[in-house]
Amino acid sequence: MAVSTLPKSLSVSEMFRRLGTYQKMVFSGKYRAILSTPTKIQRKVFDAFEIPYSER
User: Fold this and answer.
1) Can you tell me the distance from the alpha carbon of 25 to that of 31, in angstroms, rounded to the nearest whole number?
2) Entry pTM
C-alpha cells in the first residue's frame, strides 16, 4: 500500500468527502453504466489503496 503518496494535510474525513463525489450512473435497458472522471486527489487515493478506477 502506497499511503505515503497521499498529501500529509489530507485527513480521513477530508479524504471521504473528496471521494464522495465519485459517482456511478446506471441506466436501464441496453445502456451501460458510466463512471465519473476521478479528480487528481481521487486518483491518488485510489492508487494508494490499490482501488481500480476508470480513467476514460
Assistant:
1) 10
2) 0.76
CA distance 17 to 42: 10
**pLDDT 10s digit of each residue in the chain, 56 long?**
456 778 888 888 999 999 999 999 999 999 988 989 999 999 999 998 899 988 76
Written as one letter, the residue type at 22 is Y
CB 2 within 8 A of CB 51: no
The DSSP string of the chain is: --GGGS-TT--HHHHHHHHTT--EE--STTPPPEEPPP-HHHHHHHHHTT------
The domain segmentation of the chain, as residue ranges, is 3-48
